[in-house]
Design a protein that fits this description.
The chain is of the alpha/beta class. Strands 1, 2, 3 and 4 form a four-stranded mixed β-sheet that branches. The N and C termini lie far apart (63 Å). It has two domains: 67 residues, Fe-S cluster assembly (FSCA) (GMP Synthetase, Chain A, domain 3, 2-Layer Sandwich); 74 residues, Histidine-containing Protein, Chain: A, CATH 3.30.1340. Strand 5 and strand 6 form a beta hairpin. It is built from five helices and eight strands; from the N terminus they run H-H-E-E-H-E-E-H-E-E-H-E-E.
């Protein structure tokens, strides 16, 4: 009988224990701020921008967070990417205003050809192919009026230099600006 009572007591109190765990307020050990804090908003903006439809290797989206305002900058090839980026960010908890300064690049068959050639020149190289793996390539190729800007991140100075050399080797390019950031990873 004592064992049966013990089993009943455990069964009676176990749901209370689990409900207490489910409905308890999550503990944020080591984190300061609320869901509307700059760190939270920054993480959410990064996450939302990465999922913008039609965001490609030929676009670059940048942002800054200042309190409850997010400023979007960068260059995109499609107007829909600009509006989708703003729509994705303005619904984040803690964001009250979005200052959308993203530039839509003018349509140009010459620039489109340079984009394709730059992509082949950079991502066909064995040493740089790893930057093209996944949905979002690490090296973004921005082309405006025949001028190329490389944006993104690479693991080493050697990779940054190689990307620059291959980008400069594409015919029809007036200039190449290399804004790649070396992260030192891998």
């Amino acid at each position: 009988m004592k064992v049966t009572r013990l089993v009943w007591i455990v069964l009676l109190f176990q749901p209370a224990f689990w409900c207490g765990q489910i409905f308890a307020k999550p503990q944020m050990s080591g984190q300061k701020g609320t869901r509307s804090g700059n760190d939270y908003v920054t993480r959410e903006v990064r996450h939302e921008l990465a999922g913008v439809p039609w965001y490609s290797v030929f676009d670059i989206l940048k942002y800054s967070v200042n309190g409850d305002q997010v400023t979007l900058t960068g260059e995109v090839t499609q107007p829909a990417v600009k509006s989708d980026a703003e729509n994705a960010v303005k619904h984040i908890e803690g964001v009250e205003r979005v200052n959308n300064q993203i530039e839509v690049l003018p349509p140009s068959p010459m620039d489109d050809q340079i984009r394709r050639n730059e992509y082949r020149a950079i991502y066909s190289q064995g040493s740089l192919q790893r930057y093209g793996i996944g949905n979002l390539q690490a090296i973004h190729i921005i082309v405006k009026d025949g001028r190329v800007t490389l944006e993104g991140t690479v693991d080493s100075e050697a990779d940054k230099s190689q990307a620059n050399v291959f980008a400069n080797g594409v015919p029809g390019v007036f200039s190449v600006t290399n804004n790649l950031v070396v992260t030192g990873g891998k």
